[in-house]
Amino acid sequence: GENVEQHPSTLSVQEGDSAVIKCTYSDSASNYFPWYKQELGKRPQLIIDIRSNVGEKKDQRIAVTLNKTAKHFSLHITETQPEDSAVYFCAAKRNQGGKLIFGQGTELSVKP
Amino acid sequence: DAGVIQSPRHEVTEMGQEVTLRCKPISGHDYLFWYRQTMMRGLELLIYFNNNVPIDDSGMPEDRFSAKMPNASFSTLKIQPSEPRDSAVYFCASSYRGHEQFFGPGTRLTVL
User: Fold this and answer.
1) Which of B29, B43, B58 to mutate to test the interface with A (most CBs of A within 10 A)?
2) What distances in angstroms separate CA B54 from CA B16, B70, B99, one per listed residue?
3) Which tens digits make up the pLDDT trace of A40-70?
4) Bridge partners, A39 (sequence order)
Protein backbone atom coordinates (compact mmCIF):
# COMPACT_ATOMS: atom_id res chain seq x y z
CA GLY A 1 0.00 0.00 0.00
CA GLU A 2 0.92 3.65 0.14
CA ASN A 3 3.79 4.39 2.47
CA VAL A 4 6.21 7.21 3.30
CA GLU A 5 9.39 6.46 5.20
CA GLN A 6 11.15 9.32 6.98
CA HIS A 7 14.67 9.45 8.43
CA PRO A 8 16.12 10.18 10.87
CA SER A 9 13.57 10.01 13.67
CA THR A 10 15.64 12.42 15.77
CA LEU A 11 18.27 14.95 14.76
CA SER A 12 20.38 17.19 16.94
CA VAL A 13 22.50 19.99 15.47
CA GLN A 14 24.39 23.00 16.70
CA GLU A 15 22.98 26.43 15.97
CA GLY A 16 24.24 27.59 12.59
CA ASP A 17 24.73 24.10 11.20
CA SER A 18 22.60 22.59 8.44
CA ALA A 19 19.96 19.90 8.94
CA VAL A 20 18.76 17.40 6.36
CA ILE A 21 15.69 15.16 6.63
CA LYS A 22 14.98 12.50 4.02
CA CYS A 23 11.81 10.75 2.90
CA THR A 24 11.01 7.97 0.47
CA TYR A 25 7.58 7.14 -0.90
CA SER A 26 6.11 4.04 -2.44
CA ASP A 27 3.28 5.33 -4.64
CA SER A 28 4.74 6.27 -8.02
CA ALA A 29 1.58 8.28 -8.78
CA SER A 30 2.42 10.78 -6.02
CA ASN A 31 3.10 14.24 -7.35
CA TYR A 32 2.69 16.62 -4.43
CA PHE A 33 5.13 16.63 -1.50
CA PRO A 34 4.56 19.02 1.42
CA TRP A 35 6.58 19.45 4.60
CA TYR A 36 4.93 20.36 7.89
CA LYS A 37 6.49 21.75 11.05
CA GLN A 38 4.90 21.02 14.41
CA GLU A 39 6.10 22.86 17.48
CA LEU A 40 5.48 21.34 20.89
CA GLY A 41 1.79 21.46 21.76
CA LYS A 42 0.86 23.13 18.50
CA ARG A 43 -0.74 22.09 15.23
CA PRO A 44 1.23 21.00 12.13
CA GLN A 45 1.81 23.90 9.74
CA LEU A 46 2.95 23.81 6.14
CA ILE A 47 6.43 25.27 5.65
CA ILE A 48 7.21 24.33 2.06
CA ASP A 49 5.93 22.05 -0.67
CA ILE A 50 7.05 20.82 -4.05
CA ARG A 51 5.31 19.35 -7.06
CA SER A 52 6.67 16.65 -9.30
CA ASN A 53 7.43 18.94 -12.23
CA VAL A 54 10.06 20.72 -10.10
CA GLY A 55 13.35 19.29 -8.83
CA GLU A 56 14.14 21.86 -6.17
CA LYS A 57 12.43 24.71 -4.38
CA LYS A 58 13.87 27.23 -1.93
CA ASP A 59 12.37 29.63 0.55
CA GLN A 60 14.96 31.58 2.51
CA ARG A 61 16.74 29.08 4.79
CA ILE A 62 14.70 26.05 3.79
CA ALA A 63 14.81 24.05 0.57
CA VAL A 64 13.28 20.84 -0.69
CA THR A 65 14.68 18.56 -3.37
CA LEU A 66 12.81 15.84 -5.23
CA ASN A 67 14.09 12.83 -7.12
CA LYS A 68 11.07 11.18 -8.76
CA THR A 69 13.12 8.39 -10.31
CA ALA A 70 14.38 7.28 -6.92
CA LYS A 71 11.10 8.26 -5.22
CA HIS A 72 12.72 10.32 -2.53
CA PHE A 73 12.67 13.91 -1.39
CA SER A 74 14.56 15.87 1.24
CA LEU A 75 14.22 18.94 3.42
CA HIS A 76 17.29 21.09 3.92
CA ILE A 77 17.50 23.77 6.62
CA THR A 78 20.57 25.99 6.57
CA GLU A 79 21.89 28.25 9.33
CA THR A 80 19.67 26.55 11.87
CA GLN A 81 18.32 28.54 14.79
CA PRO A 82 16.86 27.40 18.13
CA GLU A 83 13.37 28.31 16.89
CA ASP A 84 13.75 25.66 14.18
CA SER A 85 13.46 23.04 16.94
CA ALA A 86 10.26 21.10 16.26
CA VAL A 87 8.95 17.90 14.72
CA TYR A 88 9.00 17.91 10.93
CA PHE A 89 6.71 15.71 8.84
CA CYS A 90 7.01 14.93 5.18
CA ALA A 91 4.01 13.78 3.16
CA ALA A 92 3.05 12.65 -0.31
CA LYS A 93 -0.17 12.86 -2.30
CA ARG A 94 -1.56 11.90 -5.67
CA ASN A 95 -3.05 14.60 -7.83
CA GLN A 96 -6.49 13.07 -7.51
CA GLY A 97 -8.10 13.26 -4.14
CA GLY A 98 -6.97 14.93 -0.96
CA LYS A 99 -5.34 12.11 1.00
CA LEU A 100 -1.89 12.90 2.34
CA ILE A 101 0.36 10.04 3.40
CA PHE A 102 2.58 11.28 6.23
CA GLY A 103 6.02 10.13 7.28
CA GLN A 104 6.69 9.24 10.90
CA GLY A 105 8.21 12.60 11.78
CA THR A 106 11.69 13.87 12.68
CA GLU A 107 12.31 15.61 15.98
CA LEU A 108 14.87 18.33 15.28
CA SER A 109 16.73 19.88 18.18
CA VAL A 110 18.91 22.92 17.55
CA LYS A 111 21.30 23.59 20.41
CA PRO A 112 22.45 27.16 21.00
CA ASP B 1 -10.86 33.93 8.44
CA ALA B 2 -10.54 32.27 11.85
CA GLY B 3 -9.02 29.12 10.43
CA VAL B 4 -10.17 25.63 11.30
CA ILE B 5 -12.03 25.59 14.59
CA GLN B 6 -12.21 22.58 16.88
CA SER B 7 -14.04 22.00 20.11
CA PRO B 8 -13.52 21.12 22.81
CA ARG B 9 -9.80 21.81 23.12
CA HIS B 10 -9.47 19.39 26.00
CA GLU B 11 -11.70 16.50 26.99
CA VAL B 12 -11.32 14.21 29.96
CA THR B 13 -13.79 11.38 30.23
CA GLU B 14 -14.17 7.98 31.78
CA MET B 15 -13.96 4.70 29.96
CA GLY B 16 -17.27 3.72 28.42
CA GLN B 17 -18.53 7.25 27.94
CA GLU B 18 -19.45 8.73 24.59
CA VAL B 19 -17.15 11.44 23.24
CA THR B 20 -18.02 13.87 20.47
CA LEU B 21 -15.39 16.07 18.83
CA ARG B 22 -16.42 18.96 16.62
CA CYS B 23 -14.85 20.74 13.70
CA LYS B 24 -15.64 23.78 11.60
CA PRO B 25 -13.53 23.91 8.43
CA ILE B 26 -12.35 27.04 6.68
CA SER B 27 -15.17 28.56 4.67
CA GLY B 28 -15.03 27.49 1.03
CA HIS B 29 -12.87 24.45 1.62
CA ASP B 30 -14.24 21.26 0.09
CA TYR B 31 -12.09 18.66 1.83
CA LEU B 32 -12.17 17.83 5.53
CA PHE B 33 -9.84 15.42 7.33
CA TRP B 34 -9.78 13.85 10.77
CA TYR B 35 -6.38 12.78 12.17
CA ARG B 36 -5.27 11.16 15.38
CA GLN B 37 -1.80 11.80 16.82
CA THR B 38 -0.02 9.72 19.45
CA MET B 39 3.62 9.26 20.33
CA MET B 40 3.49 5.60 19.38
CA ARG B 41 1.61 5.80 16.08
CA GLY B 42 2.41 9.30 14.89
CA LEU B 43 -0.09 11.19 12.73
CA GLU B 44 -2.82 8.87 11.43
CA LEU B 45 -5.54 9.78 8.96
CA LEU B 46 -8.85 8.44 10.25
CA ILE B 47 -11.29 9.60 7.58
CA TYR B 48 -11.75 12.34 5.03
CA PHE B 49 -14.69 13.96 3.27
CA ASN B 50 -15.02 15.69 -0.07
CA ASN B 51 -18.05 17.95 -0.48
CA ASN B 52 -19.50 16.45 2.72
CA VAL B 53 -19.27 12.88 1.40
CA PRO B 54 -16.97 10.38 3.17
CA ILE B 55 -14.33 9.27 0.67
CA ASP B 56 -11.95 7.10 2.66
CA ASP B 57 -12.62 5.78 6.16
CA SER B 58 -10.04 3.01 6.07
CA GLY B 59 -8.16 4.62 8.93
CA MET B 60 -11.07 4.46 11.36
CA PRO B 61 -9.81 2.00 13.97
CA GLU B 62 -13.04 0.19 14.70
CA ASP B 63 -16.80 0.45 14.86
CA ARG B 64 -16.62 2.52 18.02
CA PHE B 65 -15.53 5.42 15.84
CA SER B 66 -17.92 7.26 13.54
CA ALA B 67 -17.76 10.57 11.69
CA LYS B 68 -20.35 12.75 10.02
CA MET B 69 -20.41 15.88 7.96
CA PRO B 70 -24.01 17.08 7.74
CA ASN B 71 -23.06 20.29 5.90
CA ALA B 72 -20.06 22.12 4.51
CA SER B 73 -19.33 23.96 7.74
CA PHE B 74 -19.52 21.26 10.38
CA SER B 75 -18.22 17.79 11.12
CA THR B 76 -18.19 15.51 14.14
CA LEU B 77 -16.07 12.57 15.22
CA LYS B 78 -17.75 10.34 17.76
CA ILE B 79 -16.28 7.60 19.92
CA GLN B 80 -18.76 5.31 21.65
CA PRO B 81 -17.83 3.72 23.97
CA SER B 82 -14.49 5.35 24.66
CA GLU B 83 -11.48 3.38 25.91
CA PRO B 84 -8.17 4.48 27.50
CA ARG B 85 -6.28 3.59 24.29
CA ASP B 86 -8.28 6.28 22.48
CA SER B 87 -6.37 8.93 24.42
CA ALA B 88 -4.65 11.11 21.83
CA VAL B 89 -4.73 14.49 20.16
CA TYR B 90 -7.36 14.60 17.42
CA PHE B 91 -6.82 17.10 14.62
CA CYS B 92 -9.26 18.28 12.03
CA ALA B 93 -7.89 19.79 8.82
CA SER B 94 -9.43 21.27 5.70
CA SER B 95 -8.24 22.07 2.21
CA TYR B 96 -9.47 23.50 -1.08
CA ARG B 97 -9.36 21.11 -4.01
CA GLY B 98 -6.98 18.84 -2.10
CA HIS B 99 -4.15 21.37 -1.92
CA GLU B 100 -2.56 22.72 1.27
CA GLN B 101 -4.17 21.28 4.37
CA PHE B 102 -4.80 23.69 7.23
CA PHE B 103 -4.96 22.07 10.63
CA GLY B 104 -7.11 23.05 13.55
CA PRO B 105 -5.67 23.46 17.06
CA GLY B 106 -6.59 19.90 17.98
CA THR B 107 -8.57 18.28 20.78
CA ARG B 108 -6.57 16.57 23.51
CA LEU B 109 -8.63 13.58 24.64
CA THR B 110 -7.90 11.71 27.83
CA VAL B 111 -9.92 8.61 28.62
CA LEU B 112 -9.48 7.41 32.20
Assistant:
1) B43
2) 26, 11, 18
3) 999 999 999 998 888 999 999 999 999 999 9
4) none
